[in-house]
Design goal:
The protein is α/β, with parallel strands linked by helices. The protein has two domains: 130 residues, Aspartate Aminotransferase, domain 1; 233 residues, Aspartate Aminotransferase, domain 2. It contains 14 helices and 14 strands. α4 packs parallel to α11. The two termini are 40 Å apart. 47% of the residues are buried. The structure holds pyridoxal-5'-phosphate. Pyridoxal-5'-phosphate (PLP) binds next to α5.
Length: 373
Amino acid sequence: MRNFELEKFFAEWEFKAKYHMTASDLESWTVKEILELDGSAESDLDNMWLGYTEVRGGPEVRQAIAETYDTLSADDILCFCGANEGIYATMRGLLQKGDHAIVVVPNYQSHETVPLEICQVTGVVLHEENDWRIDMDEVRAAIRPNTKLMVMNFPNNPTGAVMPKEDLDTLIAILREHGIYLFSDEVFRLMELDEADRMPQIADIYEKGISLNVMSKAYGLPGLRVGWIASKDAEALQLIEDYKHYLSMCNSAPSEFITTVALQNREPILHRNRELTRTNLAQLDTFLADYPELFSWVRPKGSCIGFVRYSGEEGVESFCKTLLVDHGILFLPASLYQSELLHFNAQHFRIGFGRGQVFKDGMVALRQAIESR
Ligand SMILES: Cc1ncc(COP(=O)(O)O)c(C=O)c1O
């Protein structure tokens, strides 16, 4: 199987680099902080029975998840170990040899590598010059008689772009006409800088829509490893569940419990996280404006990451390597977003602005590194 280069890079550097400046998750919380949001949670956790949990996720956690959608019930939810397992199981469960998939580029790598192991895949690109929007004519042109699934991710990793409402309406109309599943990776939803940019969740508005979400990003709780897919298409859910028996089989019971507490008390968690993102982004705006000859970007509208274009002479790969090796500053260079599907000529790096003290310290180190060039 193709390597998941982006995650391999993180496996090597994430815990080694002094300043993790490319994280796509928000500053995390302690177990104690989450349990304090609910008066009886601590003793409930202490007395928890550590048996297996239900394959789809326990009724309480699925109910709490369902309540984050407008029209779904607990029966429409299938939990996974993180979002990553949800991506893998969905592609394996729904796609077969002989099918065709369409994938948005650039992407979180498994969106294209897992389908590529199974069937033919066509990429449709996000156009930087057009606010990282997809061209709907390119989607129409990519569709084949055997197209079964399209994969997209908004707010987008790595650009932080969101899809405007008129594009979403057009896209769903196109896919509906051809009976194509839309797998929508929504892990950065609720992290929009302006609530007006928030997209609806696909599972709420499209009968063949499959929404992916997780506790890792907007809630800042990646260590729980609780993700899920949501869909009104019961047949699709069953096919995907069938795959899960070969993977994690079920979630960890304490994680399900803490997830339930966090979702039932999510407002203070989201509030703190949004404030942090806004403060950090303001600092980043100032920094980028100080070096216009080196940096430019289409400012992200959602998530806590952005794709910054680097115009220095040595090129982005060398820039990122020097920062990492000489200064301990970790960015994701464009090479980790290369696609097999189409040529994507990026001179960008991904920066993350969702963390607390490490982001502040990293910005100081970054400025020093730039000044000392
Ligand atoms: C777009 C996207 N989808 C899915 C994932 C996987 O999330 P998790 O690590 O919680 O499984 C990530 C992680 O960075 C991501 O950026």
